[in-house]
């Protein structure tokens, strides 16, 4: 893939990135848990999420064709952007139908459980592009846009395109791991695991934050208000929650 291959017609490869984060918080009372949900809803409302996705679209060199956004009751928000490669100008029914394959979506899922004193904020972002653009270059931006304690990423390249001589091309860029597209200083903060199926052009990476600064996980509570044993109990509770989410199963 060293030199750029000349293609016959449009690049028909579809590149899909699924980016999922969890943010865990300790809120000791039912009132604080509800206040946390309200805080998250305000911090990550559909207007702000639209700004994040618009920046992402600019970063991959695409253009926004249409925006649909919604805030939900009692909580959560969704945004969908229809996008196209920057070089394409929408014109005619055929091209519009073709551009339907390029989009960016985000959904938020705040939740809490009154018995555990833990509240969790989940964000799902899906980016599907066709053509030469790929969303992998935006990973550091996405990780930095949220309080990302646990991150799960799936990337898949589907379909094929053809060179001018008719040879099929199933991948148009080099990739051995999603981690190749994440800055080293970001990776140093996380434990990361890969599951890659190269024959299927399917790449999976999940990451969990290594260090916990307890104050950052306390909602409306100062760490110095808590006795040492309580701090340790909360730390253990947070770490157990993160390990179970990272593992995708109940362990404790």
TrEMBL record:
Protein name (Swiss-Prot/TrEMBL): S-adenosylmethionine decarboxylase proenzyme
Q: Which PANTHER family match?
A: S-ADENOSYLMETHIONINE DECARBOXYLASE PROENZYME (PTHR33866:SF1)
On assembly, the entry states: Heterooctamer of four alpha and four beta chains arranged as a tetramer of alpha/beta heterodimers.
The pathway is: Amine and polyamine biosynthesis; S-adenosylmethioninamine biosynthesis; S-adenosylmethioninamine from S-adenosyl-L-methionine: step 1/1
Q: Reproduce the UniProt comment on modification after translation.
A: Is synthesized initially as an inactive proenzyme. Formation of the active enzyme involves a self-maturation process in which the active site pyruvoyl group is generated from an internal serine residue via an autocatalytic post-translational modification. Two non-identical subunits are generated from the proenzyme in this reaction, and the pyruvate is formed at the N-terminus of the alpha chain, which is derived from the carboxyl end of the proenzyme.
Pyruvic acid (Ser) modifications at: 102
Q: Which UniProt keywords apply?
A: Autocatalytic cleavage, Decarboxylase, Lyase, Polyamine biosynthesis, Pyruvate, S-adenosyl-L-methionine, Schiff base, Spermidine biosynthesis, Zymogen
Name the residues annotated as catalytic in the UniProt entry: 102, 107, 130
The UniProt entry's sequence similarity note says: Belongs to the prokaryotic AdoMetDC family. Type 2 subfamily.
Function of the molecule: Catalyzes the decarboxylation of S-adenosylmethionine to S-adenosylmethioninamine (dcAdoMet), the propylamine donor required for the synthesis of the polyamines spermine and spermidine from the diamine putrescine.
Keyword Flavoprotein attributed: no
Does the entry feature the keyword Lyase, yes or no?
A: yes
């Amino acid at each position: 893939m060293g030199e750029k291959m000349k293609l016959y017609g449009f690049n028909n490869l579809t590149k899909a990135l699924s980016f999922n984060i969890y943010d865990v918080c300790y809120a000791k009372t039912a009132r604080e848990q509800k206040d946390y949900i309200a805080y998250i809803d305000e911090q990550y409302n559909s207007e702000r999420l639209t700004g994040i996705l618009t920046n992402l679209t600019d970063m991959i060199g695409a253009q926004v064709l249409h925006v649909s956004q919604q805030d939900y009751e009692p909580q959560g928000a969704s945004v969908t952007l229809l996008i196209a490669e920057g070089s394409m100008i929408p014109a005619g029914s055929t091209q519009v139908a073709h551009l339907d394959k390029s989009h960016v979506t985000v959904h938020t899922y705040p939740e809490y459980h009154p018995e555990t004193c833990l509240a969790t904020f989940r964000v799902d972002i899906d980016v599907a592009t066709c053509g030469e653009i790929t969303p992998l270059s935006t990973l550091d931006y996405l990780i930095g846009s949220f309080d990302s304690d646990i991150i799960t990423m799936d990337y898949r390249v589907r379909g094929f395109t053809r060179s001018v001589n008719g040879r099929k091309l199933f991948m148009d860029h080099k990739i051995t791991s999603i981690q190749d597209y994440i800055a080293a200083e970001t990776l140093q903060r996380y434990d990361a695991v890969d599951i890659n199926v190269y024959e299927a052009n399917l790449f999976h990476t999940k990451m969990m934050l290594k260090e916990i600064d307890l104050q950052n996980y306390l909602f409306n509570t100062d760490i110095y208000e808590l006795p040492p044993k309580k701090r340790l109990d909360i730390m253990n509770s947070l770490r157990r929650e993160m390990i179970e989410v990272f593992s995708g199963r109940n362990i404790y």
